[in-house]
Amino acid sequence: MKPIQVGLLGIGTVGGGTFTVLSRNEAEITRRAGRPIRIVQVADKNLELARRVTGGTVALTDDAFAVVNDPEIDIVVELIGGYGIARELVLKAIENGKHVVTANKALLAVHGNEIFAAAQKKGVMIGFEAAVAGGIPIIKALREGLTANRIEWIAGIINGTTNFILSEMRDKGLPFDTVLKEAQRLGYAEADPTFDIEGIDAAHKLTIMAAIAFGIPMQFDKAYIEGISKLQAEDIKYAEQLGYRIKLLGITKRRQLDGKTAIELRVHPTLIPARRLLANVEGAMNAVLVQGDAVGATLYYGKGAGAEPTASAVIADLVDVTRMATADPENRVPHLAFQPDAVADLPILPMAEVESGYYLRMRVDDKPGVLADITRILADQGISIDALVQREPAEGEQQTDIILLTHVVREKQIDAAIAQIEALPVVSGKIVRLRLEALS
Known about the structure:
The chain folds into three domains: about 170 residues, Rossmann fold (3-Layer(aba) Sandwich); about 160 residues, Dihydrodipicolinate Reductase, domain 2, CATH 3.30.360.10; about 80 residues, 2-Layer Sandwich (Alpha-Beta Plaits), CATH 3.30.70.260. About 40% of the residues lie in helices and about 25% in strands. The strands form two sheets. Strands 7, 8, 9, 10, 11, 12, 13, 14, 15, 16 and 17 form an eleven-stranded mixed beta sheet that branches.
């Protein structure tokens, strides 16, 4: 059977890994797909790099549009990244009747609705397993393996850079800035780490998972996003003493509010009980915990980035597209798991209505009555305390830390309480507030 002809856009880390793995495992992949899959064209601005990676065995060009316009290309693999030219190339490939495989989570989170609609109209497939959690097959699990389930919630460590930083801060007691520099030196963090450390990358991935889990459109602009750049080493230490670990989680949940269904979509540092499996995911690894009504909790763990782990997901999509295009193109798996005319118009829950437990740390004067004032304010807002620690002041110090954990309460109640507590003359500076999830 004639090989599937693939055009590869971008031969950087993931593109190079894709070319290498596809070449190395060609026989095995052909057996799985039912026909050979061959990269026949590569587009990259750095032609010397492309020549070095491919060994000059395929056609090379610095014009990506030449690849998407080539009538001989069956599948376009987009590994350029970003929102701009990548969007133009993907839409042009779809217009030309080509299937597309991409690892570009930012593109799909922001422009996915437009891209999937265009693909549906043209009758082509979009594969994007590599866009979320690198080599972990979480998209396939949500879209196919758990298709019998009503998904209740997803909580994931879906950014390896931030997980490495938090692991190092906890293990070594180092401040954020010091660990970030080490992460950059080791190659875990980019020179500009903003997308990672401020939670944007995780929010892109969470947006995609939420759309698949709940059958809603991509709504990245409605996600609540809070990164780890302001997290302090002492809060990691205090959380540990209370039996918790802090992770940057992407969380999406189905919630009932005033008799109506809404979806939580949020990324932020979160306290997790130290005994939970998710709390023990260390270093640059990723893990996603999914709660389904039939299967219960399932955990997906592995490398969230890297050349060959991500290439594994790219090639899995190539195999899926090849199987579908070869065998039965009329019965494809819907891009977002639900049939396009059945996508639900469920609202994203405002952050003020989200319910969570909370970790609060405040600097207070060491004098009688302070704790009574704080607990009174919490009680007035309907907030009950689960655990409380008051540190002994250091010798010669007139202030100390109070750390407390609350039971589950709405965000707007904790916001109101924090504002009142910060206004007390015995409280110095801003209160540190972190959310807490039991994940059970």
